[in-house]
Design goal:
Length: 266
């Protein structure tokens, strides 16, 4: 898929969380271009390296001072590609309503950044938990139901990308209404007490849910301790200290994945 798809999905995820869609541009990080070495792409997909990516992108795209090393390879690469990133963002503004100002909110930017790897899992295996696990995360069932190489060929066709984006933008998934019966009794009671069924999804919980879903997609299976450590480490960087329940966010992502797979199969 092309860059427009990453930005659109990030923008819609931010929207269902009630956040500023001006952070959607961070979904283009890690950069992927023909000049990159293979190991750089792998490093960019690892959650362990997301803080360096995000700090560099925040400084270069929104002017926030993060103290990132300006001689790092990541920083210099994003600096070289900054104008191209802004151009790609401008192209998407014709397709979806985005603010003119790029958000400097770290957690919103983090959601967009992680969403890049999450979306990539539909198209190729991602070693998201390196160096703690070399397992590859991916939508294996999707690939088993389809000819993988034919799927890749189709998703690289401009007409298919155009139709896919148009259908995804107007999909009912972004206005999902949670049915209390879809949750266990104890979760249902808690959500009802919190009056959470009609609330926007939680930004931090959505990030945690994406990391959990990445772990659930991993083959071979990885220990949950690896997933839990990765979440704790990343959230320490983000400054998120509260415990997050992700029942609604996990349910939403599972339904989103079904919708994306349906559209990819058309």
């Amino acid at each position: 898929m092309d860059s427009k798809t990453y930005i659109i999905i990030a923008a819609k995820l931010l929207e269902v969380c009630g956040q500023d869609k001006g952070a959607a541009i961070y979904s283009l990080i890690p950069l992927e271009n023909s000049r990159q070495e293979y190991y750089e792409k792998i490093q960019g997909q690892s959650l362990e390296n997301k803080p360096l990516l995000l700090n560099s992108a925040l400084e270069l795209l929104s002017g926030v001072k993060t103290g990132v090393a300006k001689n790092s390879h990541v920083y210099t690469t994003i600096k070289e590609e900054r104008e191209e990133l802004l151009k790609q963002l401008g192209d998407v503004k014709l397709l979806i309503n985005l603010p003119s100002t790029i958000s400097h909110d770290k957690i919103s930017a983090a959601l967009s950044l992680v969403s890049h790897s999450y979306v990539d899992c539909f198209f190729h295996p991602v070693q998201f938990f390196l160096p703690h696990s070399s397992a590859c995360c991916g939508q294996w069932e999707l690939w088993e139901r389809n000819n993988y190489f034919e799927l890749l060929k189709k998703t690289n066709e401009k007409e298919f990308q155009f139709n896919f984006r148009d259908k995804l933008i107007v999909s009912k998934i972004w206005n999902i209404k949670f049915n209390p019966e879809h949750f266990s009794e104890i979760v249902r009671r808690r959500l009802s007490k919190e009056k959470a069924f009609d609330k926007k999804l939680n930004l931090e919980a959505m990030i945690k849910a994406m990391v959990i879903r990445m772990g659930e997609m991993a083959k071979p299976t990885i220990n949950y301790e690896v997933i839990d450590y990765s979440i704790r480490s990343f959230f320490t960087y983000l400054g998120v200290k509260k415990y997050l329940r992700v029942d609604r966010e996990i349910k939403f992502l599972i339904e989103l994945e079904k919708e994306i797979m349906t559209l990819l199969g058309e």
